[in-house]
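Bench log. Compound arrived from synthesis this morning; before running ITC I wanted a structural hypothesis for how fe (iii) ion sits in the protein. Inputs:
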Amino acid sequence: MKESDITKIRNSVKKKLDAKRYEHTLGVAYTAAALAMRYGADMNNALVAGLLHDCAKCLSNERRLAICEKHNIAITPAEEKNPFLLHAKVGSFLAMKKYGVTDRDIINAILNHTTGRPGMSTLEKIIWLADYIEPGRKHAPNLDRVRKMAFEELDSALLIALEDTLEYVKNGKMEVDPMTQKTYDFYKNGGQE
Ligand code: FE
Ligand code: FE
């Protein structure tokens, strides 16, 4: 994607998000770009995926459900219980239809940014982690360690962050998304099926 397209996306996303979410979005985009530099991934793809990863976050659940219904996007039982999870699915749909993104890797990075998935591409891992460590984040345990590790050893950082996410969800007596568990198990086993 050209620089002018990226600027267009940034301006249009700014209008769709509240100030706090936009700030977070910029944090993710630039953190993802830095990780792309470190790991030899495409920097502009990282910027675009970062800018768009939460583009459906400031829609109401009703609006998200309506978009899924209208465009025949399947909803899992977990998403039905936690419709906020849908912002990833709807976001990847909007990235294609509204923002003109055609790159499959970018679409996947947006699609999988909440739960991850086994066998993520480098860009998918970068977006997942950038969302976790961007400078505006404050609350995750071991954040300093994960931030440092993210620039040293991507998969190790991913594993620590996934482990902490699952622990946090379980301690808070919230329901673990089965895909997050699957992702963790996959990387715990060294990233092999
Ligand atoms: Fe998100
Ligand atoms: Fe986010």
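What the model suggests: The two ends are 33 Å apart (CA to CA). Residues 53-54, 57, 87, 113-114 surround fe (iii) ion (ligand 1) (CB under 6 Å).
ITC booked for Thursday regardless.
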